Amino acid sequence: MRTQVAIVGAGPAGLLLGHLLHRAGIDNVVVERHDRRYAEERIRAGVLEQGTIDTLDEAGVGERLHREGLPHAGIELLFDRHRHRIDLAALSGGRAIVVYGQHEVVKDLIAARVASGRPLLFESSDVAVHDVDTDHPSVTCVHDGEPTTIDCDYIAGCDGFHGICRAAVPDGAIRTFDRVYPFAWLGILAEAAPSAHELVYANHERGFALFSMRSEKITRLYLQCAPDEDLAAWSDDRIWSELHRRLETDDGWTVNEGPIVQKGVTPMRSFVCEPMQYGRLYLAGDSAHIVPPTGAKGMNLAVADVRALSKALIARYASNDDTRLAAYSQTCLKRVWRAEHYSWWMTSMLHRFPDSTPFMDRVQRSELAYVTSSEAGSRVIAENYVGLPFDE
After folding, report:
1. Mean pLDDT for each consecutive 10-residue tract of the chain (392 residues)?
2. Burial of 250 per CB tally in 10 Å (0-12, 13-18, 19+)
3. Which residue, 48, 141, 186, 390, could crosslink 127 as a Cys pair with Cβ 3.0–4.6 Å?
4. Which tens digit of pLDDT belongs to each residue from 18-28?
5. Rg for the chain, CA atoms, rounded
6. How confident is the model over 51-67, as pLDDT tens digits?
7. Active site residues
8. Distant-in-sequence, close-in-space partners of 109: CB < 8 Å, separation ≥ 6
9. 154-157 sheet: strands from edge to edge
């Protein structure tokens, strides 16, 4: 099989890249080791930045997100039993967010891919990349029981943190930066109507909590927990009790309860690799960087990566201009490190660390009081939360 760009991974990064290239007339093949059902049902992030929304609109796949997504113009920070609203739109020149699950974005992109007729090789095993430091790279896999070789000009590694693409780069060719946090999130999906219209981030002496939603009938909630938390120790009653304790306010607001349909523990880490390219292999999304979910940046960074990569590849094929390809890593890392800092800052401000002292508790409270009472402090949260404009 011969193509121009081979894309490894059918998450939002790989699928969006494939769709953007298709619309520009650039041939591409997407290879994915899981089946379609897994890709479409894997519950992940759900906050779309303004730039992500704009990109999906430009790609022609934003119709359903505008119909079913939940627009939000603000968020709330809860501490000392009071909620404090950050007006995202007013503080960022009218930019806002939409709550729309990552798996819903994936469904829309798969539907667009299928409609395009471009190859999407689900359930591919033994995926490997070859000769990425030459002018003739390739991807091999087993698909439908047949060994398959995809000869290409470029490879996009969109296969996540544990994927094969970054691991294929020789030792010493990239540098990694990593921090593993001493806590995790216990997350649930509940069949309960959200009791507020915007996300609530809570700093509590017992640990962080987050009130969110996935639709007008489904609430998404998180509790800070230990990284090795045993889910079996968390009955539904214990979860609801802890959520009420951490999210209760003096004005009587509380979360609505309902049947819990999903539970899971999400580890917390920050990770970046530099550079995000090696030879003709370009890394995008989680294969190149991970952020703690506190800042809602994971999928949005992936979209920013493939936006930059698609424009670089289009320039290469349209006018034989390699300038953007050469600068791809530098272009992306500027935004990546801004998001890494913001996510680390929000995580540090809102979570209870195991080695916390009364002094650090007071520092957290002081910082929260500042960012919720100062326009300058609130603007830092707002501008970063809705996503900074693309530097193009």
Report:
1. 97 97 98 93 86 96 96 97 97 95 95 97 97 97 97 98 96 96 97 96 97 93 97 97 97 96 95 98 98 96 98 98 97 98 98 95 97 98 95 76
2. exposed
3. 141
4. 999 999 999 99
5. 21
6. 999 999 999 999 999 99
7. 72, 201, 293, 297, 385
8. 12, 15, 16, 19, 61
9. 120-121, 28-31, 5-8, 154-157, 281-283, 277-278
Q: Of 65, 71, 63, whose CA–CA distance to 89 is shortest?
A: 71
CATH topology of domain 5-73+94-177+269-352: FAD/NAD(P)-binding domain (3.50.50)
Phi, psi for 119 (deg, rounded to 5): -65, 130
Q: What is the pLDDT of residue 45?
A: 74
Give the span between the Cα atoms of 358 and 341, in whole angstroms: 24
Beta strands in the chain (DSSP E): 5-8, 28-31, 47-48, 70-72, 74-79, 82-87, 97-99, 120-121, 125-130, 138-143, 146-151, 154-157, 175-190, 200-202, 209-213, 219-225, 260-274, 277-278, 281-283, 289-290
Q: What is the dihedral of CA 142, 42, 385, 77, to 10 degrees?
A: -150
Report how far residue 163's alpha carbon sits from residue 287's, in angstroms, rounded to the nearest whole number: 7
Structure tokens at 105: 């974005």
* Beta bridge partner(s), residue 56: none
What separation in angstroms does the CA of 240 have from each of 123, 189, 221, 248?
38, 12, 10, 11
Distance CA(245)–CA(33), nearest Å, equals: 42
Residue 182 gets the label, from left (phi > 0), alpha (psi -120 to 50) or beta, of: alpha
First-to-last C-alpha distance (Å) of the chain: 34
Please state the separation of Cα 380 from the chain's center in Å.
20
Answer yes or no: are the C-beta atoms of 193 and 340 closer than 8 Å.
no
Quick one: the chain helix, strand, coil %, rounded to 5?
40, 25, 35
pLDDT at site 89? 96
pLDDT of res. 44: 75
State the Cα–Cα distance between residues 186 and 337, nearest whole angstrom.
Answer: 26
CB atoms within 10 A of CB 40: 17
